[in-house]
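Q: Can I see a sequence and its folded structure?
A: Here is a first one.
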Amino acid sequence: MKHQNPAFEAIKPNIGSSFTLLKFMRDENIKSQFWHYHPEIELVFVCGGSGKRQIGSSISYFKNGDLILIGSNLPHCGMTNENTHNEYEVVIQFRPDVLGEQFWDAPEMQRVSALLNTAKSGLVFGEEIKKKLAVKLRDLIELSPLQQLLSLFDILNELASTKDVEVLNAGTYFLHTQVEDNERINLIFNYVKDHFREQMTLQEVSGLANMTVPSFCRYFKKITNKTFTQFVNEYRVIHSMKLLAEQPLSITDICFESGFNNFSYFNKTFKEYTGKSPSQYRKEFSNIIE
C-alpha cells in the first residue's frame, strides 16, 4: 500500500452522541493504515492479534492485542490489517472540549486531565489494565449514548489510575510545532514507510524536505529526538520483529526483507534495540509462528 500525502482525518460523532464510538470486526478497519492525524483524542483497543504500531516517531510491535491512548493531533497509523488476525477493534474518538472547555478544570477530573495531557506523546497500556477493561470496552457499543459517555469517563479514570502504562514519545514532539513542520515530517515518515526495504540516502531524503543534508539532520533530531538513521533502523527492526514472530522465513531472509543489506549489522542493530539476538527473540514466539 502506498502512502499518499499526510492526511487530516475529519471525524464526526455518532448520531445522538458527543463522541465517536466504532467497533470493527476482523479485517474491517484496513483503511486506517494510512498516516493521519486529527484534533480528537483517540482510545484504541485491539482484542487479540499482533502487528506494528506507529504513533508519532515511536515504532513498536504489539502482541496479544493492544490498548493505546493517542493525544490530540498526534499523527499515527491504524494498527490492524489483514495480517493482524485480531478478533475485533474498538475505537473511541472525542474532542478535548467534548463537554466544554472548563470541564477538565473540575477537581474530580484532575487525574483524567493529567492523563490526557500525557497522551499528547502517546500512551500504551500493559496486560493487567488491558484485561481489566476488555469486557467493558467490548460491550460499550451496546449501551445507550448516555451510558456510553458515563462508561467512557469510568474507563478514562481506570486508565488514569494505573501504573501499567508506557509513554511512547519521550520529550517534545513535532505535534507541538507549526503546520508546515507536521507536513514535512509526515512526508518523510511516509517515505520511510514506503521505502524502508530499500537503501535510502540522506541526500534523497533531505531533498524531499527541501533542505541541505546538515540542516535536515539537525531538523530531524530536533523534531523527533532521534537521528534519521536511528529512526530507519528502528523501523526496520520492528518490521523484522513482526516477521520473526509471525512468518516461517529464515532469519537471513528476514534480514534482507526488513531492509538490512548486511547480516552482521542486522544482528548487532537488533540486539541493541531488543537486548536479544533475532534467534532468541524468535524462540520466545515460536508458539505463534505460522
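Q: Show me another, different protein.
A: A second, unrelated one:
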Amino acid sequence: MKQLQFPQQTKFYRGKVRDVYTISDKWLVMIASDRISAFDVILPRPIPYKGQVLNQIAAYMLKATRDICPNWLLETPAPNVAVGRKCIPFRVEMVVRGNLTGHAARTYASGKRELCGVPLPDGMKENDYFPTPIITPSTKAEVGHDEDISREEIIRRGIVNEADYARLEKYTLALFARGRELAAKRGLILVDTKYEFGKIDDTIYLMDEIHTPDSSRYFYAKGFEERQAKGEKQQQLSKEFVREWLIANNFMGKEGQTVPLMSDDWVETISKRYIELYEQVIGEPFHPQSLSDEETYQRALYAINNLEA
C-alpha cells in the first residue's frame, strides 16, 4: 500500500507489518498491511488478506478485554484500519508463555534452565504446560531484533519503573487468562502471546494488536494430551509454521543468510492458514474485503474528523 498523507499528520512510521500515522500528536491511524515478518525480517511477498485478519481479530480481542485494562482502540473504519489514542509506549514487550514452545523450547533444548531471569523447571518436554504462566519480556527495538531481558534489568536500567512494571505484570497475566478463556470456548489453547503497553498521563493503556496469529500461538485442544503423551507435534494455529519453513530452508534472520523464495502456492497456503485462524478464533466466517487505497484513506479520514469534532 502506498504511503498516505492526512491533514494534521505529525508523524509517519512504517513498521514490519503496519503503517502508523500520528494525527495532531494525539491520535493514531494504524493500517495493517499484508506484509509478513519472521525473525524480525520482512519477507519478500505479501500475504493476501493478512492485514484484514490481523486488524479484525485484534479489534475483537481488544473489545473483549476492555474491562481488564483500558486500550488504545476507538474505531475500525476499514477492514485493515484501526484508529485510536496515541500513547507514550513502554519500550518493552510483555511476552507471556503458558507452554514450553517456540523460543522458550529452543532455549530449553540448548540446556539452559533460565529465560529472561525466570527459572525453567527440569524434566519438561516441548509443549508441556508451565506450572503457572511465565512472563519473559523483551526490549522493543526500533530497528533489528528485539532482545530478551529480565524484570530486574528493566527496572535497573530505568526502562520501566518498579511500580509501573508491577501493573504491567498484573495486566499481562489477567489478559492472558482472559485470552485462554476465549480460546477454550473455541476449542483452542492460547499457548503464548505478547502485549505492548503505553501511557497517557498516569493511565496505562494496552496498545497495538492482541491475540492475533502474528502475536500469539494457538494449539488445538482436542487431542492435545494424547499428542503430548506420544511425543507427537501439536496441531497449531500460529505463524510458527512460517518460521519452521524458514528454518528448514536455512534462514533464521542471521547475517549472511538469504530469505528463500516464496512460491505462489506457499503464499496461498499462508493466506489460508491466517483465514483459518480467524474463523477458528472468532467463530464466524471470514469475509474478504479489498478496498482501494483511496477508499481506505477516506474511511480513515472520516473517523479522524469525528474524533477531532
